[in-house]
Queue: 2 jobs
Job 1
Amino acid sequence: MNSPARQFGEVILKLENISLAFGGVKALTDISFDVREHEIRAIIGPNGAGKSSMLNVINGVYQPQQGRITYRGETRHHMEPHFAAANGISRTFQSLALFKGMSVLDNLLAGRNLMIRTNILLQALRVGPALREEVHHRRRVEEIIDFLEIQHVRKTPVGRLPYGLQKRVDLGRALAAEPKVLLLDEPTEGIQPSIVDQIEDIIIGFKQSRRFAIVLVEQGLHFAARLADRYVVMAKGTVVAAGKTSELSAEEVRQHLTV
Ligand SMILES: Nc1ncnc2c1ncn2[C@@H]1O[C@H](COP(=O)(O)OP(=O)(O)O)[C@@H](O)[C@H]1O
Ligand SMILES: [Mg+2]
């Protein structure tokens, strides 16, 4: 009853023997791991370990020279960015990629754009199905704004917000795309400890919603170990350890923190 399969559902994403090089630089060497529905899988490792490159392989921005990627039952050599984005792979960025001049609300609506089905002409005229769809999208975006507690800045241009709030908007933009797999690239990087707690609460909320799986990239072990069901430790482009966070011993924590 308590097997991981029961607890977290089926494997939704599987990486097998992924290798990626840039010229002579080996960014990833023979990486394999999987992610189950509704779980949080952490990727932990120091700067330069290959964590962001791994996320870029998952969302198709980087195409590895070797390996296979299986997403929702379909296996391919590499992901295409548009396919990934349109099929539920959504991410936040280590260096934020928001439209700084646009409001919080418009950034979230932009995050939803891939889901908008009716044609551009109907949208421009704001009639019939397009109008109903727009009402639906706005309602969902408002729900996300409430959940992230950013109502007070919903009309503010993102560039004017403090960094910690921008991180929250970036989470909102990724969430607005209704992900099946949400990729979080160092969501706590560069923010104050009090805001780290807020980000932690938000990620706990994501997990409790059981709407999607999360791949959580972090440099430090502690934040990730508190939230993740399973972890992968990366160093120099390879996986050096993997397992359930509930089974991490103090000794292993010490060991992994020094890799
Ligand atoms: N677009 C790129 N071109 C060349 N080298 C890259 C590129 N992206 C990443 N790398 C290299 O791959 C390695 C891993 O980087 P990265 O994935 O950013 O690590 P991390 O996110 O763990 O800090 C580094 O040596 C980095 O310089
Ligand atoms: Mg990185």
Note: Strands lie at 11-22, 25-36, 40-44, 66-71, 74-76, 89-91, 181-185, 213-218, 230-235, 238-244.
Job 2
Amino acid sequence: MQRFGDNWTLIKLDILEKYLKSYTTVMKNKTYFNLIYIDAFCGCGVNEKINSQGSPLIALDYNFDKYIFIDKSVKYINELKNNINKNANHTNKNILYINKDCNSFIQELSLNRYDRGVIFLDPYGMELSWHSLELIAKTEKLDVWYLFPISGLIRCLKKDRKIHDTICNRITNLLGTENWLSELYQESKQCSIFDEIEYERYNIKDVLSYVKNRLSTIFSGICNQPKILKNSKNSQQFALFFMCSNPKKNVTDLALKLSNYILN
Ligand SMILES: C[S@@+](CC[C@H](N)C(=O)[O-])C[C@H]1O[C@@H](n2cnc3c(N)ncnc32)[C@H](O)[C@@H]1O
């Protein structure tokens, strides 16, 4: 069993479920496509804290031809198998369980001409590398829900801009550029008593627009506004983004119409 999250976790799962429902309905008659659901941070399928099924069990209620469940914890993969096998409705489903870091799995991911699908990226924090997002975008076949760790990023972006090298590398890995150091800070109008330049970090709203701009450099479409998920103390934890990788305008327009409607 896993125990994490809060009311925002239920909101996140509700948004995912509504999209899976719309997606499988729209694709129902397009039988020439092989529909795939990929859960790159799948967990064990049950969240005791919020008394809810996790994303992989929710996805199994919708008709995909194949499900790929990835988690780097062998314990969670084994628990997920047990949880899925308890439900007789799931016994005939085509499920691939992968016990490894999803960033290395995504490097090996190869989709065929008729594959189409949805990938859910639901990390605890800053585990997903930008390179993985680039590879997902290059498939041109996947719709993407990404729970971006805004509170994790803000914690790393120290106000005085004095950030340890290890943390700098983690931020670069998350955002896919080293320019964030100059782009997310501006020179302060006040000088320090030692006449050094002082910096001010962008506020959370501007950091989120920056993230959205970065994502839109690699995906063909992105939601108007991500869903901001707050904890019980009203502090912003994550931003749930939707992106579309298919470059065909009619496909992107439809995916964005559905996702924007659900996000609103
Ligand atoms: C927030 S939980 C996922 C919850 C799940 N989506 C749900 O709805 O119940 C994050 C999961 O990602 C796994 N994880 C963390 N880092 C990972 C990585 N680099 N690759 C794959 N799985 C990872 C953790 O073991 C954990 O089970």
Note: The pocket of S-adenosylmethionine is lined by residues 4, 13, 41-43, 47, 54-55, 70-73, 76, 101-103, 122-124, 127 (CB under 6 Å).
